[in-house]
Q: What sequence folds into this?
């Protein structure tokens, strides 16, 4: 079909930000005085907006590109041009398919059209009658990289970043030919790395030099004259003076390739299982396509790719991912709901950390590295202080060793972190955070002492995970200055910060907390002061339910594996062991005190803690897991076991109930904040949409609360 | 005193044996070294303004293309051997600000150990970048330099942002009209009534014709570095030829143009250089370094000079500058076989030619045409003259000496005299040989 035949699809998107296909004729240069090979048509993909608005591929964009390419194909037939190039506006080749447009395709048929439109346009590029070249000047994601893959030759800039086929991460497949071309170009093993491992490893992308090393591009040029050099290279290729070598390319029909192909697919499946428990369909589909297309023609593969795309576009996993990725992580995380005007924020030029333990050390390192202001640790004796400072210095040395910090930066960071046994060192601090024992009286005492030293404007922050910030503020002279600042472990890695507003916390303090979070490169979510805030409350509710069914007599394997269909990053008992049984129990007790029987305190867990058992499971040297007899002896069980399905449903309902209550109590501005917290604070998968779209999908929200969390269409197919 | 005694032909090379000890035995001996022009390159020139090819292109990016082009053309020059990057611009703000030579070096990917600076002598910026660094090469401070200039007159109209001292007016130091170059060209017509509008127009037509012929013969293109530029609504393209030329311009075309500087005046857009965007850069080296690194020698620097004139007739500047440069070199105007004179205005070129009794259409003058046709992005033009002279030297080994000369705003002129290494009597070291091993006949005469 010609691109114009898709006008009907394009007309469904009258508001698309169109990325135009501007065509310029360029007379290619010759070398060594020889005349050049002729006229070259260069397409620039450009939406005429600045670098903050990436170019994307929507239906109108593709129709325009396809029409331009069809015109060039005719010119090639007439012998007017000797080659065609595609490049992008600064920083982008093209960022990829317009996900908002794809997400809003209501009918399967429309999704199929969209898939076919892309394939038809790219097929024109691949069959122009003259060689085509992609000059990858910047980001090329998904359909953007596939434009390059469909070209005959590729150059890439050393300055280009964000080159990837992230479809498996997003809930789709690289179905505009990527899944077919890439394994042939770079080998099946590298293709699995690019299409599966990278997307499922926090959506990792490739740099220009990495893409060149893999064989995705034929030539690598520096940004300062990337396009000029790319064109000179294209001229040499067209003239036959340069023949690109493709060391990693494979012929699928060659001897030995079948075995490599199968091994790569098998390795990919293993990776997917480990990362997602197979809970999202897309990664498996990528591997299905890869496995099948070894013996297919490009056209045969294209037909299957289109069907697969059409199918996946209608899945809730895809829609959840778009919601979680675009609406939450990329937008809401950058503009926290309920944050006061940033103009109210006060400067923070020195930070105090009360305590010199592990958490205090992590906080000190973060503040010193990101804020680059003096940070003072205090503790009750010199030995603890020295140990705390030594920890930070050792961590800085590790970063230096990994070349994450320069020697000068390491020197600077170390010099910023000092220790003192006297809180007098806080006298000129603007922000003092405590990381002492989770005991209200201890924290109140600490703040009383700090308040005696610091200025009346100095902000006091608590990193408590379960205590009442309101209660902590009660006896303060200036209760308006206290704010909750709840980090997640490990502090350097986890992107979430729960900023807790107590009833008397004032706007300037809160605004400062949000600006500080931004400076620390954390995503802050505003939460009301309620026991365990958001992430821990949900995790503990989940772990509490699973512990309860275990205590009731459900076999450990059944209880611990019941949530597999959710694809959470780890099983409940693994999480419990990682958090530490005593810590989990401590928080659970706080929640029990606050909310009663929704958070039961397990006697079995108490028994394990009393006997210093660190984890339920013990892994044998051969990798098998079992609960040791010595542990079982400590436990007592009821006689009402549940099946896996029952456990899953019970947890779904419990989560729906808890989140429903949290939203009603106003702990957060809305279910979207709960989802954002679970994604950033607990690493819950995007294909669950965080959690509430999943609860809506499985019916738990309706069952328990009589209503959905999100309207149909927000993170699911429109009603 | 570094110059040889008057009995010796001073144009001839001052080799390293010619050194002078200073202030008794404690001082180290000082050597005067030959300076050679290794290579020069430039961007295609564009017309300034919204419609021009570089409307969306930064000035510093233009000079970066030149530096990279030079390095690419001279692969035997290790980037870390570049001792200085001197880049001129008349208006040193915005995309021409921030110590251009240094920023251009960093942007071009030169090692961070390579220093750079910015330089300004209005239209003679690049020429001054060359002569200043050449002086330092001769003195022994550098072995290899990059010198060039850039002017994006679309982004930086002449004099933009300048705040002339009111004393110029109150004390009548300079006629305010002299700050407008077009007025100074009209003033030159007043001073030299023999230079008529008919003569300047004829000269301008010839300039266009000569450039068109040079393009036809492929004499311009080899020294242009292609520049990719993007414009809104058009996408990227690559520019590999000059935008300003208007080949086929006739006398009739020029007669119809208005005279914007004076009613019923003589200076028009047709017999003057336009407002342009462009950049140039050259590699200069000591002849020893050129030999050591296997760099080509396209010209040898003989002498240079700058001279001031009344700002109101700045166009006459090349005359005293050339007088001085010839005197420094011990040469006369008759020794000069090729003239590359910047055509800011036809009247100003003709005033120079009349002074020396050279015909308007003398084939030694601007063989490839001049700025009237190709454009004059102020501070970049000096090196364009050198690029063209170097190519003419190669084409015409019968010529031994040539000059590049230009008038300069606020009443100055600059002239550089060069020797052709292709001439049989060339006094410098032949390309690729160590200078110290060669003593020319002239030097021993």
A:
């Amino acid at each position: 079909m010609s691109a114009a035949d898709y006008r009907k699809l394009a007309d469904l998107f009258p508001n698309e930000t169109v990325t135009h296909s501007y065509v310029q004729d360029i007379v290619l240069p010759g070398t060594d005085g020889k005349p050049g090979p002729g006229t070259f048509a260069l397409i620039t993909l450009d939406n005429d907006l600045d670098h903050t608005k990436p170019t994307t591929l929507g239906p109108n964009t593709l129709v325009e590109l396809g029409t331009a390419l069809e015109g060039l194909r005719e010119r090639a037939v007439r012998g007017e041009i000797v080659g065609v190039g595609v490049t992008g506006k600064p920083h982008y080749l093209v960022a990829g398919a317009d996900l908002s447009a794809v997400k809003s395709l209501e009918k399967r048929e429309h999704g199929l059209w969209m898939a076919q439109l892309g394939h038809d346009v790219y097929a024109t590029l691949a069959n122009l009658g003259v060689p085509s070249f992609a000059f990858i000047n910047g980001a090329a994601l998904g359909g953007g990289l596939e434009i390059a893959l469909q070209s005959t030759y590729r150059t890439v800039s050393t300055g280009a970043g964000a080159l990837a086929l992230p479809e498996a991460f997003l809930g789709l497949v690289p179905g505009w030919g990527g899944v077919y071309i890439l394994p042939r170009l770079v080998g099946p093993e590298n293709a699995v790395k690019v299409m599966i491992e990278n997307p499922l490893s926090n959506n990792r992308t490739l740099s220009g030099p990495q893409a060149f090393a893999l064989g995705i591009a034929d030539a690598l040029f520096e940004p300062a004259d990337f396009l000029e050099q790319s064109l000179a290279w294209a001229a040499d290729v067209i003239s036959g003076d340069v023949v690109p070598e493709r060391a990693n390319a494979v012929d699928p029909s060659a001897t030995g390739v079948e075995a490599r192909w199968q091994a790569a697919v098998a390795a990919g499946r293993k990776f997917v299982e480990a990362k997602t428990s197979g809970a999202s369909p897309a990664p498996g589909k990528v591997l299905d396509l890869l496995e099948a297309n070894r013996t297919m023609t490009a056209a045969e593969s294209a037909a299957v790719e289109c069907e697969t795309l059409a199918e996946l576009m209608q899945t809730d996993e895809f829609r959840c991912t778009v919601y979680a990725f675009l609406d939450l992580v990329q937008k809401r995380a950058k503009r926290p709901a309920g944050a006061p005007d940033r103009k109210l924020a006060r400067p923070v030029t020195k930070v105090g950390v009360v305590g010199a333990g592990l958490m205090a050390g992590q906080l000190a390192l973060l503040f010193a590295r990101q804020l680059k202001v003096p940070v003072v640790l205090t503790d009750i004796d010199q030995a603890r202080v020295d140990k705390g400072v030594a920890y930070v210095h050792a961590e800085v040395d590790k970063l230096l060793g990994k070349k994450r910090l320069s020697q000068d930066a390491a020197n600077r960071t170390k010099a910023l972190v000092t220790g003192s046994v006297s809180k007098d060192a806080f006298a000129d601090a603007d922000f003092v955070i405590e990381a002492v024992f989770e005991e209200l009286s201890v924290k109140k005492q600490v703040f009383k002492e700090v308040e005696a030293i610091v200025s009346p404007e100095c902000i006091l922050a608590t990193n408590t995970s379960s205590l009442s910030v309101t209660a902590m503020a009660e006896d303060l002279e200036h209760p308006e200055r206290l704010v909750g600042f709840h980090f997640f472990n490990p502090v350097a890695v986890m992107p979430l910060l729960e900023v807790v507003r107590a009833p008397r916390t004032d706007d300037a303090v809160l605004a400062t907390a949000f600006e500080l979070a931004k400076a620390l490169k954390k995503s802050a979510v505003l939460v009301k002061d309620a026991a365990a805030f958001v992430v821990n409350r949900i995790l503990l509710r989940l772990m509490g339910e699973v512990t309860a069914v275990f205590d009731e007599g459900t076999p450990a394997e059944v209880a611990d594996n019941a949530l597999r269909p959710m694809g959470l990053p780890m099983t409940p008992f693994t999480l419990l062991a990682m958090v530490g049984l005593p810590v989990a129990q401590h928080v659970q007790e706080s929640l029990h005190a606050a909310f009663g029987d929704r958070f039961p305190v397990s006697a079995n867990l108490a028994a394990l803690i009393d006997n210093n058992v660190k984890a339920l499971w013990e892994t044998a040297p051969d990798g098998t897991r079992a609960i040791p007899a010595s542990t079982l002896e400590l436990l007592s069980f009821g006689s009402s076991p549940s099946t896996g399905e029952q456990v899953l449903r019970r947890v779904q309902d419990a989560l729906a109930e808890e989140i429903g209550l949290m939203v009603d109590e106003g702990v957060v501005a809305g279910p979207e904040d709960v989802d954002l917290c679970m994604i950033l604070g607990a690493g819950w998968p995007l294909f669950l949409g965080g959690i509430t779209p999943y609860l809506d999908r499985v019916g738990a929200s309706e069952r328990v609360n009589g209503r959905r969390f999100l309207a149909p269409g927000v993170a699911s197919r429109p009603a | 005193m570094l110059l040889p005694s008057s009995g010796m032909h001073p144009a001839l090379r001052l080799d390293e044996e010619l050194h002078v000890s200073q202030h008794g035995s404690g001082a180290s001996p000082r050597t005067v070294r030959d300076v050679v022009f290794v290579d020069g390159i430039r961007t295609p020139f564009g017309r300034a303004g919204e419609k021009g090819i570089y409307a969306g292109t930064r000035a510093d990016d233009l000079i970066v293309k030149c530096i990279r082009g030079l390095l690419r053309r001279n692969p035997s020059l290790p980037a870390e051997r570049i001792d200085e990057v001197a880049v001129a611009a008349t208006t040193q703000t915005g995309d021409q600000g921030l110590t251009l030579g240094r920023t251009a070096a960093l942007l071009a990917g030169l090692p961070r150990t390579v220093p750079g600076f910015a330089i300004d002598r209005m239209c003679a910026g690049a020429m001054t970048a060359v002569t200043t660094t050449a002086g330092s090469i001769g003195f022994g401070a550098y072995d290899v330099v990059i010198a060039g200039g850039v002017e994006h007159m679309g982004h930086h109209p002449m004099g933009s942002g300048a705040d002339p001292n009111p004393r110029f007016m109150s004390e009548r130091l300079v006629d305010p009209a002299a700050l407008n170059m077009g007025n100074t060209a009209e003033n030159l017509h007043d001073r030299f009534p023999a230079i008529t509008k008919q003569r300047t127009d004829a000269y301008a037509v010839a300039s266009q014709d000569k450039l068109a012929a040079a393009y036809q013969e492929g004499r311009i293109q080899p020294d242009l570095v292609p520049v990719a530029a993007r414009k809104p609504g058009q996408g990227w393209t690559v520019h590999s030829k000059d935008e300003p030329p208007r080949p086929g311009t006739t006398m009739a075309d020029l007669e119809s143009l208005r005279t914007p500087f004076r009613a019923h005046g003589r200076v028009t857009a047709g017999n003057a250089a336009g407002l342009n965007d462009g950049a140039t850069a050259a590699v200069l080296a000591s002849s020893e370094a050129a030999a050591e690194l296997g760099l080509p020698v396209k010209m040898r620097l003989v002498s240079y000079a700058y001279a001031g004139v009344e700002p109101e007739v700045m166009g006459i500047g090349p005359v005293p500058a050339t007088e001085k440069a010839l005197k420094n070199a011990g040469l006369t105007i008759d020794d000069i076989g090729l003239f590359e004179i910047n055509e800011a205005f036809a009247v100003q070129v003709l005033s120079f030619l009349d002074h020396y009794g050279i015909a308007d259409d003398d084939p030694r003058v601007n063989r490839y045409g001049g700025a009237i046709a190709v454009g004059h992005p102020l501070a970049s033009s000096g090196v364009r003259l050198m690029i063209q002279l170097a190519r003419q030297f190669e084409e015409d080994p019968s010529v031994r000496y040539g000059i590049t000369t230009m008038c300069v705003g606020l009443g100055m002129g600059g002239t550089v005299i060069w020797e052709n290494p292709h001439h049989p009597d060339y006094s410098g070291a032949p390309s690729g040989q160590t200078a110290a091993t060669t003593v020319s006949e002239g030097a021993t005469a």
Residues 62 and 247 of chain B are 25 Å apart (CA to CA).
